[in-house]
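DEPOSITED CHAIN:
***
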Amino acid sequence: MKQTTSTILMVEPASFGFNEEAAKTNAFQRRLPDFTPGQIQDIALLEFRNAVNELQGLGVEVLVIRDPENAVTPDSVFPNNWFSTHAEGKLITYPMTTAVRRMERRTDIIQQLKEACKCNEHVALEYFESQEEPLFLEGTGSMVLDRVNKIAYAAVSPRTALEPLQKFCDTLGYSAVTFEAYGPAGELIYHTNVMMCIGATFAVVAMDTVDEQDREKLYTHLTTSGKEIIEITKEQTYHSFAGNMLQIENKQGELILVLSKAAYESLTEQQLDQLRAHNEHLLALPIHMIEKIGGGSIRCMIAEVFVPTA
């Protein structure tokens, strides 16, 4: 079992923009009234294509899926929220909070994923959406996975409910470590992956966003599982998406930490040195429009593709 993969999937957007419904639970989204919807889409597309080129240039296999031309899915650039793949041979799809995001689930992508990751089982958790009291779990946004130790770290929120989280854990033999963390307005932080990243040998975490009663529990689980904790601040999290990183690898087996340019520039030299000790490459990608309008960063743009291990 490995924490990292060299194959990822990214979705090229056709209608990227501000999602009014999603903004109700995502305090990280920003309106940019000086830009037209067409300009926002064009800039986001340039940022996306540059990110793909940079990743491929470092030897990462990127499966690019394009939105249909007539798509009305403003958040499709963040596919990690609606599916995940696993070396246990499972493909999992998730219950999404906003109706427009449910349109991102495409049978053609699911079929391509089944072939790419050699998944022998598709576990569909979206039935939680249609319960009398709907519950949500937005993939590896809601959960930050320690795949080697089979731990799902989850900050509970309107987008991350305990019942579907437990179903995920039961399906894959994971244990859940839950806690509360708070966003810039004191709200429950909408996705765990904006304040936390798990690598093979380290964990980046904005511990000062975590409820004081939960900090010792979180710290203990991370250190017990062998991770060096690299702390970032809530300011770095709220303003620069510093926690929204992902460790992957290239075809040569070199470890790459992918983060946004804004996140990189917010980090101190000490934090950067700590990260360099665990990675051959720090890949900082400029995605300012996607971050501001979408309220998510580069980790959200990358869906990992894992194939079953022998």
Summary: Residues 7-304 form a domain with the L-arginine/glycine Amidinotransferase; Chain A fold (CATH 3.75.10.10). The chain has a mean pLDDT of 93. The longest strand covers residues 7-12.
